[in-house]
Specification:
2 domains, mainly alpha, 0% strand, Rna Polymerase Sigma Factor, Chain: A
């Protein structure tokens, strides 16, 4: 993989005048080992991907690390991109979001390990322990219910509620009409609500 430059800080639009080559074509060429195409893809999309990652992990240093991991994965797996299943930008941002969520979950696991250590080595008031246990159980239930959604519902819900994007932004990122994005988010939330109601 060619060395990556710092995340560009200008206009994050991947369809700007400076990058007329379609992203899908750049991905196909990257899959063949074309480093120039990959560099162009990176310049066209890195700011957008980094913005998404930063919204999820909320730490600039970690966001930089995760963004680099994202593009390493894209370089390695570009051949898996299937234009018939969605846009190149959606595919790329899905990888970015998944990597960011994985980093947050890893941090949560480390935090839980710290909590376990302190619980075993010190005195924690009963109410605080109960609150932590309840929060952990709720987080597990939400993640479990998310897995019950269809792929398109889960993608839209995660971008809207874990990524913090508006319906309009979600629609643009997934190359969908706003009404379709709203419908996927609404249907996903209804399904989650019903599933969590059953799980209680």
């Amino acid at each position: 993989m060619p060395p990556l430059r710092p995340v560009p800080s200008g206009d994050p639009s991947p369809e700007g005048k400076a990058t007329p080559t379609p992203l899908a074509d750049l991905l196909v060429r990257s899959a063949r080992g074309d480093e120039s195409a990959f560099a162009t893809l990176y310049d066209a999309t890195a700011a957008r991907a980094h913005g998404l990652v930063l919204r999820v992990v909320r730490d600039p240093a970690q966001a930089e690390e995760v963004t680099q991991e994202v593009y390493l994965e894209i370089w390695r797996t570009a051949s898996r991109f299937d234009p018939s299943r969605g846009s190149a930008l959606s595919w790329l941002l899905t990888i970015a979001h998944r990597r960011a969520v994985d980093r947050v979950r890893s941090a949560e696991a480390a935090s839980r390990n710290d909590t376990t250590y302190h619980r075993q080595s010190g005195v924690i008031e009963h109410d605080e322990t109960a609150e932590r246990a309840e929060a952990s159980m709720e987080a597990r239930r939400v993640r479990s219910v998310l897995q019950s959604l269809t792929d398109v519902q889960r993608e839209a819900v995660e971008l809207a509620y874990f990524g913090g994007y508006t319906h309009t932004e979600v629609a643009r990122m997934l190359d969908l009409p706003v009404g379709t994005a709203k419908t996927r988010i609404r249907d996903g939330l209804i399904r989650m609500r019903d599933a969590m109601g059953v799980a209680q």
